[in-house]
Design brief:
This protein is an alpha/beta fold. It is built from 5 helices and 7 strands. The protein is globular and about 45 Å long.
Length: 129
């Protein structure tokens, strides 16, 4: 069976403790792509949070795939074409937001064009968006 795709999480899998892709990892993944093996970045991050790694890996040159929001949005890295998207029901979203108010988490809402957050300068916002 021929290997066709490698799916990678970013934080702690693709990147090291300094949030960097090592030279060896980059070289290996570029070689795989040159052999026709597609790379997919799979993350809980929003799409813009994947752009830096996608650029470094040259996914746009090799029809890589960006899977954001734990699979909620999937796009082709070459042309930005939306391949798949899942929306949450508005009432379920409200219930979830109410539940999350009591937790120490950063909530990032995305309407497809803009992000909505309580603290625009929060760690997760600057790092992942």
């Amino acid at each position: 069976m021929k290997l066709k795709l490698i799916a990678l999480d970013i934080d702690g899998t693709l990147t090291n403790d300094e949030k960097k892709i090592t030279a060896d990892t980059l070289s290996t993944l570029l070689k795989f792509q040159e052999q026709g093996i597609r790379i997919m970045l799979a993350s809980a991050r929003p799409v813009p949070g994947l752009y830096s790694a996608a650029s470094e890996l040259r996914l746009g040159d090799h029809h890589g795939i960006l899977m954001a929001y734990n699979g909620g949005k999937v796009i082709d890295a070459t042309d930005g074409q939306l391949l798949s998207q899942t929306h949450m029901d508005l009432n379920k979203t409200r219930e979830l937001l109410h539940f999350l108010e009591a937790l120490p988490v950063t909530v990032i809402l995305d309407d497809g064009e803009r992000f909505y957050v309580e603290d625009a300068h929060g760690y997760k916002v600057e790092y992942e968006c």
